[in-house]
Amino acid sequence: MSREVRVAVFRPDDERVDEAVDLLDALGATPVPDPMLAVEPTGSSPQEDAEYVVLTSKTGVELAADAGWSPGDATLVAIGPATADAAREAGWTVDLVPETYSSDGLVSLLADRVDGALVEVARSDHGSPVLTDGLREAGAEVHETVLYRLVRPEGAGESAELAAAGELEAAAFTSSLTVEHFLDAAAERGVREAAVAGLNDAVVGTIGHPTRETAENHGIEVDVVPDDATFEALATAVVERAAPAHRGR
Fold first, then answer.
1. In angstroms, rounded to a whole number, what is the distance separating the alpha carbons of residues 51 and 181?
2. How far apart, in whole angstroms, are the C-alpha atoms of residue 104 and residue 98?
3. Which residues make Cβ contacts (< 8 Å) with residue 51, sequence separation at least 6?
4. Which residue has the higher pLDDT, 52 or 13?
5. What's the first-to-final CA gap in the chain, in angstroms?
């Protein structure tokens, strides 16, 4: 990569943003870490009498495990590999993982299994209704436990100023909430319109089509949505797209 390619990442300010920085470094890009999510635990634990328990994040697994919860005899469903790995590290057996790591993927996986069953969905306060509505339509009795809230960290928004100044070559959004928090941070700094324009001159990638739809609904043009809904796939695709575009400037 002959010239600097700056890539903004918005993962929570914990090991996830550190891993994102390391990955972008390894890909030859210059990471711009700007965490747009902070975790506030609620102190709640998943319900214990469900036949199926659905966990949708590594964070949720870790909070449930720290609270001493375990799935017992329930069928444990993880939304994707990172969540499944965290569950196994907690000593639990993961029974099901969908082919597509999304709410739609979970509904497709479980629709023919859960008619009449009690399904516990344990996740953040920003979980998609696609999951709970889809399971109810499949005949399940659904109980949802909010394990944590996702808030915007104080001071977030460096990437918005860089985008507004035309100094960002790429951005990698991992959820609809990261898009919304980016825009809120840009607005607080008085650069929302310029930041969107800057993103539209850069390469924008999202994990999943719901995140893409959120971005596009706010006027952000999305260039990359990898088939594999992982940060590694997203970062790799964004850097690959941004590097030749940057060289051509």
1. 35
2. 9
3. 74, 75, 114, 117, 118, 119
4. 52
5. 13
pLDDT at 138 over 50: yes
What's the Cα-to-Cα distance from 210 to each of 69, 101, 132, rounded to whole Å?
31, 12, 16
| pLDDT recorded at residue 31 | 97
Q: Token pair 């035309």 is at which residue?
A: 166
Q: What are phi and psi of 132, to 5 degrees?
A: -65, -40
Place of tokens 């994990």: 207
In this predicted structure, the answer to whether residue 1 has a pLDDT above a threshold of 50 is: no
Collect all residues with Cβ–Cβ distance below 8 Å to 92 and sequence separation of at least 6. 70, 71, 76
Residues 6+ apart with CB under 8 A from 232: 23
Residue pLDDT, tens place only, 172-222: 999 999 999 999 999 999 999 999 999 999 999 999 888 999 999 999 999
> What residue type is assigned to position 214 of the chain?
T
The pair of three-digit structure tokens given for residue 147, joined into one six-digit string: 């394990």
Q: Which of 110, 76, 58, 62 is nearest to 230 (CA)?
A: 58
**Average pLDDT of span 3-25:** 92
| 38-41: strand order across its sheet | 38-41, 141-151, 118-124, 52-55, 75-78
